[in-house]
């Protein structure tokens, strides 16, 4: 079986890191969920995802035997960095409670290959999870990932404006995991500056696992 040498990324507040180092990236209903979890996303979108049902059609809208899942039951990751949601988190707006400084936003980096080896159940999409034009796929399709994901859109630097709505949708394709991810499945941490890096190291992250990527922020 071919290896899936693709990374996925999840953003979190730096205050969540100590819990993550101990328990991993936890699902909201996990017995190990962080009772003091600091949210950084759009609260209206988070609430919407809690009840949003999507169909796993594997790209076939006519598949009458497709199963459904609830987005809120899964831990979402992106296939890239510097996403539209990050802009809202940093600048504020929509239903983000308050803007978050870039040095307080940390990227958690995981490997699809290692997730598969760990036996975790997952799904993925070709666009933003709440968009009606998005298709969802089960793990039987993971080896066609590069044919499904639009990498040009994921890497696109410009996605604003009505003329780019589909680029924006495809840029935010998701990788959804149903269970907690052990700390060992986190292969790296991305941060904004040396100050954030030093804080991560003080929290117990190995320095070799931290990469300062200011271009990954707005």
TrEMBL record:
Keywords carried by this UniProt record: DNA-binding, Glycosyltransferase, Nucleotidyltransferase, Toxin-antitoxin system, Transferase
GO molecular function: DNA binding; glycosyltransferase activity; nucleotidyltransferase activity
Family annotation (Pfam families): DarT (PF14487)
Catalytic residues identified in the record: 49, 174
Catalytic activity from the UniProt record: a thymidine in DNA + NAD(+) = an N-(ADP-alpha-D-ribosyl)-thymidine in DNA + nicotinamide + H(+)
Domain named DarT: residues: 6-218
Binding site for NAD(+): 10-12, 49
Family: Belongs to the DarT ADP-ribosyltransferase family.
Protein name: DUF4433 domain-containing protein
Species of origin: Flavobacterium restrictum
């Amino acid at each position: 079986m071919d290896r899936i040498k693709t990374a996925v990324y999840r953003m979190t507040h730096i205050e969540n890191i100590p819990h993550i180092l101990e328990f991993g990236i936890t699902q909201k209903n996990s017995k190990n969920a962080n009772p003091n979890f600091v949210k950084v996303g759009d609260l209206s979108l988070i609430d919407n995802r809690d009840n949003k049902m999507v169909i796993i059609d594997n790209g076939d809208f006519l598949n009458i035997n497709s199963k459904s899942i609830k987005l809120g039951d899964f831990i979402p990751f992106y296939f890239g960095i510097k996403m539209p949601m990050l802009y809202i988190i940093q600048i504020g707006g929509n239903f983000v409670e308050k803007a978050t400084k870039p040095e307080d936003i940390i990227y958690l980096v995981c490997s699809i290959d290692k997730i598969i080896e760990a036996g975790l159940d997952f799904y993925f999409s070709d666009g933003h999870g709440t968009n009606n034009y998005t298709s969802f796929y089960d793990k039987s399709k993971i080896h066609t990932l590069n044919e499904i994901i639009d990498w040009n859109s994921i890497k696109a630097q410009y996605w604003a404006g009505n003329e780019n709505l589909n680029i924006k949708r495809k840029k935010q394709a998701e990788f959804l995991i149903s269970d907690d991810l052990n700390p060992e499945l986190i292969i790296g941490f991305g941060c904004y500056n040396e100050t954030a890096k030093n804080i991560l190291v003080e929290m117990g992250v190995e320095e070799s696992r931290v990469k300062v990527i200011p271009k990954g922020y707005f």
